[in-house]
Amino acid sequence: MATRRANGDGSCRRITEGRFTGKWRVQLTITDSNGSKRRISRLFSTQAEGKAFMREVQRDVHRSEAEAAKPVTLTDWFFWLVENDWPDTVADSTIRSRIGRFRKYVEREWGGVPLIKIDPLDVKAFYKRLRDKGIGHATREAIKTDLVRVFNQAISPYKRVPTTWGNPFRLPMDSKPRREAVALTPMEARRALRSKGLDKRQRAFLGVMLLAGLRLGEVMALSRRQLDFERGLIHVDQAVQVSYGGRQTVGLPKGKKKRYAVMCEALAAIMQAHVADMESDQFVFSATYENQPRMRKLVYAYWRQLKKDASLPEGMRPHDCRLSHVNWIEKLCPDVSATTLKEHVGHAVSGVTEVNYTRPLSSSQRILSTEIDRILGYTQVGARCKKERVGIPALSSKRFWATPKKS
Fold this sequence. Notes:
- This protein is mainly α.
- It contains 15 helices and ten strands.
- The strands form four sheets. Strands 1-2-3 form a three-stranded antiparallel β-sheet, with helices on one face.
- A hairpin with a 2-residue loop joins β9 (378-381) and β10 (384-387).
């Protein structure tokens, strides 16, 4: 009997006994691109068929080896992720934005460079050139975020570059001074909503931003049917999404999560005055001449006029309304649970609230001061502290500051 050569070129031999007598058995072992070995054993009626099968398998193996040896360029890898990875987890509008930035700012300079040959020094110079061309800080940060994500996925989980490598696109860029967010107090918000310079539409727009804490895209897409005055709820099931280049569509809210936001009585009164004559499918803050959400540029122009009419702080932006709203609940509403707050504003985890939406509030600081006085046995009366009748010495007495005697 001929010696079997399942490894290497494989073997094709005739079977001389048993139920398959007269047939030809092909056996070979192949190694895939991941290094895993797979044994193949097939029967054929003729030797010619068996050898043809072997040649086809070997051609496929050689082709795979050649492709594995060919260096993957940044463009190849980026668009592989576009087609095979991102559609499962990323919104279409986000993918379109990433493609637009890559085509405009990255592909000409980096598209043909193999992943394994991207030099951090060249990346540093690339970031500097973007700045020198006058590309805005927010756009440059978005470009960097895209590239860091793409290279990270090449390292893990897809292992297109060695796992021991660092990410060259993670190099720092010149940082923009952080804007100081404006956090209104409840009384400041009340004064703004009562401003005589506001019309019904402006008051409703500011009210839903401050008193419901909706995102700007959610406010832009708000329709009459979403307002449930009987239950005091706003069904947040749609939002305006702006893609790269300004393309505007109406889709699901951030994270594709629908939710119910609470509508307090003060907000309900403001909204009822504005939507009294509206149809169910009409947008609450539609474009001037048609039932469509206003484009974002027009919304910001509208906000600037509203800010002036309501005497709001000069540096205040629409998102500061949401920040103020979350800040009130977090610091001034101790009976509201963390889960209720997350459901109301649409946060995935509690940490988002603490890190991004809390700012000092003088009213919350006064509550803290009062609570410390309370546990010490003192209550605030006017501008002075009055001792409660619990047997605690006055703050000015030496006995208060004395070291307690050991029992």
